[in-house]
């Protein structure tokens, strides 16, 4: 039986990142009473689902605020986007950027195991019997992995978000590397991330077909220096050093909705 080419994946929560800028000149024209009413409305909306929506104060020139939303369906994600857009506060914000993705667990090791076991059972890829067995196996794994696939927003003080690709150029093309070699590199890559599990929470989301890059990476920690240490070590890893391309990095500080008034004072 031929080796697999495409690794299986499990998908969970849909994710929306919204990077916002404050329209300071317009905001400063408001009288204190109007500001207070607008902020009270925004605080109520942003506090409705604290485990699924997070507010961050961005550090640097790329924006002022970052909103991160986790929802179980794309419809729910779109709904919260429209609910926030109807707030009066939105008249004083403009979106600098956004990113849409879905929480993803890559199954390189499981893919190889499934192909081996199904081959031993005499199943052939593309047949109804194969598809049924695969569906049952993925459903079992999705149930077992539910806490990772449908996470609550981590409570950590700091966030680092960035999108990334695997190279598809003329000299280096990740998607032309044989499956077994990709699996080997991803195993080593994952071991580096697991070294930092006590200090950095990582949530990987897939965005192929949803946004401009292939994956989004969210890192959460109580100390932002760990973002640097983790990503720096990974730069020396083969899969990153040879095949990775990185987008714009956003770093923010967790902010309670009740603290929004102080930020905009």
How is the topology of this model organized?
Elements: E1 8-22, H1 24-28, H2 32-46, E2 53-58, E3 65-71, H3 74-85, E4 93-107, H4 108-120, H5 128-144, H6 146-149, E5 158-166, H7 179-195, E6 201-206, E7 215-221, H8 225-235, H9 238-243, E8 244-246, E9 250-254, H10 260-263
Strand arrangement in the largest pleated sheet: 1-3-2-9-5-7-6-4
Number of strands: 9
How far apart are the termini? Answer: 66 Å
Radius of gyration: 21 Å
Low-confidence stretches: none
Please bin the fraction of helical residues: 25-40%
H and E string? EHHEEHEHHHEHEEHHEEH
The share of residues in extended strands comes to 25-35%
Gross morphology is: elongated
Number of helices: 10
Question: Would you kindly provide a written description of the structure presented here, covering whatever features stand out?
Answer:
A hairpin with an 8-residue loop joins β6 and β7. The chain starts with 7 loop residues before the first strand and ends with a helix. It has 265 residues and is α+β, with helices and mostly antiparallel strands. The longest helix is centred in the middle third of the chain and has 17 residues. It is 39% helix and 28% strand. The mean pLDDT is 95. The protein is elongated, with a radius of gyration of 21 Å. It has ten helices and nine strands. An eight-stranded antiparallel beta barrel has the order 1-3-2-9-5-7-6-4.
């Amino acid at each position: 039986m031929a080796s697999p080419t495409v690794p299986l994946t499990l998908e969970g929560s849909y994710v929306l990142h919204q990077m916002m800028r404050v329209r300071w000149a317009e905001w400063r024209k408001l009288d204190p009473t109007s500001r207070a009413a607008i902020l009270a409305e925004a605080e109520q909306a942003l506090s409705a689902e604290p485990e699924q929506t997070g507010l961050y104060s961005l550090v640097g020139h790329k924006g002022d605020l970052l909103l991160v939303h986790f929802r179980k369906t794309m419809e729910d994600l779109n709904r919260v986007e429209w609910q926030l857009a109807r707030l009066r506060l939105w008249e004083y914000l403009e979106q600098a950027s956004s990113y849409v993705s879905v929480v993803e667990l890559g199954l390189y090791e499981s893919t190889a195991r499934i192909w081996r076991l199904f081959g031993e059972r005499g199943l052939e890829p593309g047949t109804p019997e194969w598809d049924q067995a695969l569906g049952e196996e993925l459903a079992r794994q999705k149930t077992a992995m539910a806490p990772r696939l449908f996470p609550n927003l981590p409570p950590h003080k700091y966030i680092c978000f960035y999108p990334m690709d695997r190279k598809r150029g003329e000299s280096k093309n990740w998607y032309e590397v044989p499956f077994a070699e990709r699996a080997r590199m991803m195993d080593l890559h994952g071991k580096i991330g697991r070294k930092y599990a006590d200090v950095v929470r990582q949530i990987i989301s897939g965005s192929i077909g949803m946004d401009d890059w292939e994956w989004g990476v969210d890192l959460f920690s109580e100390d932002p220096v760990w973002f640097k240490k983790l990503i720096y070590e990974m730069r020396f890893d083969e899969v990153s050093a040879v095949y990775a391309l990185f987008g714009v990095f956003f770093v923010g500080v967790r902010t309670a909705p009740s603290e929004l008034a102080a930020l905009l004072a």
